[in-house]
Specification:
Blueprint: E1 10-20, H1 22-28, E2 44-51, E3 63-66, E4 69-70, E5 90-91, E6 103-107, E7 111-113, H2 119-122, H3 125-138, E8 144-149, H4 153-164, E9 167-174, H5 178-186, E10 191-194, H6 200-210, E11 215-220, H7 225-231, E12 235-243, H8 257-262, E13 266-269, H9 277-285, E14 297-299, H10 304-313, E15 319-322
Parallel strand pairs: 8-9, 8-11, 9-10, 11-12, 12-13, 14-15
Antiparallel strand pairs: 1-2, 1-6, 1-15, 2-3, 3-7, 4-5
The structure holds zinc ion (2 copies).
Family: Belongs to the zinc-containing alcohol dehydrogenase family.
Protein name: L-threonine 3-dehydrogenase
Pfam families: ADH_N, ADH_zinc_N
Length: 324
């Protein structure tokens, strides 16, 4: 790729590292926002290499991360202050070139200074920002019991924010493997339960019998339709079910509307994030968000195919493409 040209309000970022996430698998198949030809990569960290004439918020040499979502600010939803639901979203690494390249152009307003935060931790700020939006959506009441299905990288970040934002008790239920292992090691939940692929029904019944009144909030963060369908059973009367995972567009599930009605259950979703990176950086600066050790495998951009494969297989907690 040639080095992108920048405008007066843009910056050019020399990419150090860019996280690889499940959404990239969808983009790879041309799903979701993908517009080809595409340089993917929406979790980028790097150094400012050039700035446009009007840029004041950062200088050459600053280390930054980029918020990949830019709303149009003029569509039906944008003018109603729902910019995250913009109909003409510019998504760096989704429909315009992103961070899996040596250089990327961003509007200056999209980049945030990270000072000396290591790049392999900085690439987690975008997924953490998505988790911060999830927290806003959930509106956790103080003293809540929360159940989180899945503990991928976003789940691990979300779990930490859940514990700092009202949850008294957090249970993580996930299949075994490196992700659950890391969650335990980081000590981010109060209880951990392995749901294996072989005997999920039995383990789900154990989870139900251990929690006869269910949970105030149940978060489905695995992207598995089967888990999403089962999740409803664990929501306490008056509780909330949060659709957080990314599912295939064609998937359908079945829920009992009677149960949703009788139990006054709120079903809500958290899609992605916009403008949450400064908030997440506050947790990082305060030393309260554990980011170290989540990226456990790095690849050169030439190894993209191999990298996608480990993400697909789930043998990695979090992969990143690195350039230096
Ligand atoms: Zn992502
Ligand atoms: Zn818009």
């Amino acid at each position: 790729m040639s080095v992108p040209e920048i405008g007066d309000d843009d910056v050019l970022v020399r990419i150090s590292a860019c996280g690889v996430c499940g959404t990239d698998l969808h983009y790879h198949k041309g799903e979701f926002l993908a517009k080809w030809p595409l340089v993917p990569g929406h979790e980028a960290a790097g150094t400012i290499a050039a700035i446009g004439a009007n840029v004041k918020n950062v200088a050459i040499g600053d280390r930054v991360v980029a918020d990949p979502m830019q709303p149009c600010l003029t569509c039906f939803h944008c003018v109603r202050r729902k910019t995250l639901l913009c109909e003409n979203m510019t998504a760096f690494g989704g429909n315009v070139p992103g961070g899996f390249a040596e250089y990327c152009r961003y509007p200056a307003r999209s980049v945030h200074s990270i000072e000396d935060l290591p790049s392999l931790q900085a690439v987690l700020l975008e997924p953490a920002a998505c988790a911060a939006h999830g927290i806003e959506r959930m509106q956790i009441e103080a003293g809540s019991r929360v159940l989180l299905f899945g503990c991928g990288p976003t789940g691990i970040l979300l779990a930490q924010l859940v514990k700092m934002n009202g949850a008294a008790h957090l249970t993580i239920a996930s299949k075994g493997g490196p992700k659950l292992h890391l969650a335990r090691k980081l000590g981010i939940a109060d209880e951990y339960l392995t749901i294996s692929d072989d005997a999920p029904d039995e383990q789900m019944s154990t989870l139900a019998s251990l929690n006869p009144h269910g949970f105030d909030i149940v978060v489905e963060a695995t992207g598995s339709p089967w888990v999403l369908e089962s999740s409803l059973e664990f929501v306490r009367k008056g509780g909330k079910l949060v659709v957080y995972g990314v599912y295939d567009e064609s998937v359908k599930i079945s829920w009992s509307p009677f149960r949703i009605w009788e139990h006054e259950i709120t079903v809500l979703a958290s899609f992605c994030s916009m403008g949450h990176i400064p908030h997440v950086l506050e947790y990082v600066k305060a030393g309260r968000l554990k980011l170290d050790g989540i990226v456990d495998m790095t690849f050169r951009v030439e190894e993209w195919e191999e990298c996608l494969e480990v993400v697909r297989q789930g043998t990695v907690v979090k992969a990143a493409i690195v350039f230096d």
